[in-house]
Every structure is written in C-alpha cells, then in structure tokens.
Amino acid sequence: MKIRPGKTGLVILAIVIIIVFVAAIIAYQATGPMGIEERFNAAAGLRNDAEEESGGTGGFFIEGNAMLYALILVVLAAACVAMYRQFRL
Amino acid sequence: MAHIHLEDGSFTLIWVLVWWLVALAGIGIALWFLRTTGRKNQKQITIAAFVTAAAFAVFQINIPVFGGVHLNLTPLIGILAGPVLGTLVVLVINILSAAIGHGGWGLVGANVLVNLSEVIVAYGVFRGTRSFLPDLFSRAGIATFAGLFCGNLAMVAIIMISGIQGVTQTPDQVLAGLSLIIAINMGIAIVEAVLTGLIVRSIGKVRPDILGEEAP
C-alpha cells in the first residue's frame, strides 16, 4: 500500500497513538484508578499519609507549612528583582 | 504529564540542591543566549508570555482520564517560544505552581529539568522533521509525543538517581512502578498531542511566521 505524500505524518501519528493507548490501558489496569500523588506514592512504595511521617534523614519538610511557603516565595521574588536590576533583561 | 509529584522531603537536601544547581545552570545559559542574541525579539517574548499564562492555567486542571492527570503544554512552549525562552517559561510555571501548592519547592529544580527536556525535544523534533513531515498537525503531534516521552524518561532518571527517602521497595520495584506511570502519562499524551496539533495547525493557517513556516 502506497501512502500519499503529505500523509506520512498522519500515519506515523496514528500508529504512535494506537501503541501508546494500548500501553496506557494495560498500565491502568495494572495500577487501578488512582490520583497523581497516590500513583506516585504507590510506585515508590510510600504510604499516602507519608507527609505526616518524618521520612529519612537530611530532607526537609515544608509541606502544609504556610509560613515557609510564603517565606520561600518572598525570597524568590527578591531574587528575581535583584537579578532583573543586575542584568536588565 | 511528566512532573515529579512527590512531597518535599522525598529527596535528600543534597539532591534537592544538585537538581536546583543543574536547573540554574540551564537557566543561566538561557539568560546568556537572551542577552547576546534574542534580547530584541519582542514578538517572541510576547508569545512566551502568552504560553506561560496558558500552560500555567492548564497545569492546574486535572483531566479525569486514567485516574486524573494534568496536561503540561510544554511541547507547545517549545514549538512556539523555542528552547531559550522556553527555559524561563517552565521555571516561572513551576515556581508559580509550587506557590499555590502544586508540587514541592524542593522539587522545582528537578521539575524544571523534566519540563525543559520536553521543551527542547519537542522543539528539535518539530524543526528537524519539517522537510519530510509538511503537515503541521501531525508534526506537532509527533513532536509532542517525543517531548513528553523524553520528559517521562528524565523524570524517572532523576527519581532513580536521587532515591526517595522512606521507600519500602527495592530500586527495581520502584523502576517497575514508575514505568507504569510513564505508560499512563503517555496515554494522556494522546490528548496533549491532539490538542497541540490542533493549536499549531490553527496558528499555521493564520500566522505561519510565528512557527517559522512559510505562508501557504
């Protein structure tokens, strides 16, 4: 079968879509219905309430800490202003 | 799509700093390019601003397919804004997303690298296949698949290299679990590829110069 010039891309795209769709269905059946975070936690072997635990050493835990979130945002904003003034983009 | 959805504290502080430093190196290169070459290209900067707003909004919308995943639009960022401005766009999106609680601050560096790989690969495939894939819809769709697949590979590589604190599985088991995430993410990539293809084809009809294409 000869593919019309200009249609090669559509044929390649269709083949990729079919392969990807079949793979996604198989993977979804293996994992079951989960949200993004739950799927990540299941893949990594973490419990879904892991943020409430102190997990490991050397990490830092700011999840849910509004003050730390605000502090980091202020630091980043200040860094952006400093870089803008310095480099005049 | 490809985005590391782990809480702060999943990576050790050392790896958080490593990925931030690598991301900052990429951002530094992009800024250097902008200062030396593209500084006066106001049209590209305007396009970058638009795709930043669009991609940030899309980032926050959960698509209820395969349990729920969000789109990235990073391949569209690469196609429209290019890899240099695209680097800054993904940085801004990741910072703003972290600011409203989508992902952790510590993972912004790693996620910028993941998204950056999507931007660069999509841009390269879209430009590199122009001679033998003239159809904009399919070319943008294929570029989207290529970009998002590489983004997923980068995501898994970063997680496997860093290791996750507090895991109860072996690296092989983690890799197997992450492989399933890649397959499901690529399923959502179908939506993103079709969407990107339609957007690029529409832009190509009215303003082919934005895509660097010749008018039909």
Description:
The complex is a heterodimer of chains A (89) and B (216). Chain A has helices at 8-31, 36-44, 66-87. Chain A has 89 residues and is mainly α. Chain B has 216 residues and is mainly α. Chain B has one domain (13-211): Arp2/3 complex 21 kDa subunit ARPC3, CATH 1.10.1760.20. Chain B has helices spanning 13-38, 42-59, 74-99, 108-128, 136-162, 171-206; strands at 62-63, 69-70. In chain B, β1 (62-63) and β2 form a beta hairpin. Chain B is globular, with a radius of gyration of 17 Å. In chain B, 53% of the residues are buried. Chains A and B meet through α1, α2 and α3 of A and α1, β2, α5 and α6 of B.
Considering residues with a beta carbon less than 8 A from a beta carbon on another chain, report the largest interface and each chain's count.
A-B, 52 and 62 residues
What value does the Rg of chain A take, in angstroms? Answer: 23 Å
Q: Kindly, what is the distance between the CA atoms of the first and last residues of chain A, rounded to a whole number of angstroms?
A: 54 Å
The N- to C-terminal Cα distance of chain B equals 33 Å
List the topology elements.
The complex is a heterodimer of chains A (89) and B (216).
Chain A (H helix, E strand, L loop, with lengths): L7 H24 L4 H9 L21 H22 L2
Chain B lengths: L12 H26 L3 H18 L2 E2 L5 E2 L3 H26 L8 H21 L7 H27 L8 H36 L10
Antiparallel strand pairs in B: 1-2
Helix pairs in contact in B: 1-3, 1-4, 2-3, 3-4, 3-5, 4-5, 5-6
Offer a concise description of the structure.
Chain A has 89 residues and is mostly helical.
Task: Offer a few descriptive terms.
heterodimer; A: 89 residues; mainly alpha; B: 216 residues; Arp2/3 complex 21 kDa subunit ARPC3; two-stranded antiparallel sheet; 6 helices; 2 strands; globular
